[in-house]
Amino acid sequence: MNVHVKNQLDVGAKLPVLTKRITQAKINAYAEASGDFNPIHVDEEFAKQTPFKGTIAHGLLSLAYLSEMMLSWVGENWLSGGELNVTFLSPVKPGDTITISGHVIAKEMSNGVPRLRVSLEAVNQNNNKVVAAEAGVSLN
């Protein structure tokens, strides 16, 4: 477990903040990695004709950044015992900067193993919430 985490286990403790700038290049790279070439993500001309008026990032790209933050916070515990419930609230577009933050909302024991529940959110540069999530992680 990350040494910094030991001091951040109390209810109300804040998680480290992660900020990511979204670019069309990152969206295209995610399309390549995932095989999801939906034109809303990769075809600017098509996307201009939609209500979004341009391309949008894959929801799972934002989710990957939430997971990256959790991994940096609790390390391998996230990989072996993490779970995430997510609500996508608004599209993320090229040029957006999203900031992911969170705090501990519960500390409990499960089969003798400490488990944390955390509230996470991602906001864009205009402070509009684009993703809300709750995560659980066992600290074995």
**Overall tally of domains:** 1
| Distance N to C terminus | 9 Å
Strand elements, count: 5
Order of helices and strands: EHHHHHEEEE
CATH class: Alpha Beta
What name is given to the CATH topology? Thiol Ester Dehydrase, Chain A
* Backbone shape: elongated
**Average pLDDT, to the nearest integer?**
92
Structural class, please?
A: alpha+beta
What proportion of the residues form beta strands (DSSP E)? 25-35%
Helix percent reads 25-40%
Rounded to an integer in angstroms, the radius of gyration calculated over CA atoms is 17 Å
User: What is the CATH architecture assignment?
Assistant: Roll
CATH superfamily: Hotdog Thioesterase
Most strands sheet = 5 strands, antiparallel
Query: Numbering strands along the chain, what is their spatial order in the largest sheet?
Result: 1-3-4-5-2
Give unreliable regions as ranges: 1-5
Number of helices: 5
Explained architecture:
This protein has 140 residues and is of the alpha+beta class. It has a single domain (3-22, 56-138), classed as Thiol Ester Dehydrase, Chain A (Roll). The protein has five helices and five strands; from the N terminus they run E-H-H-H-H-H-E-E-E-E. The chain has helices spanning 24-34, 39-42, 44-48, 59-74, 76-81, and strands at residues 18-21, 82-88, 97-110, 113-123, 129-138. Strands 1-3-4-5-2 form a five-stranded antiparallel β-sheet. Strand 3 (97-110) and strand 4 form a beta hairpin. It is elongated. The termini are close together. The model is unreliable at 1-5 (pLDDT under 50).
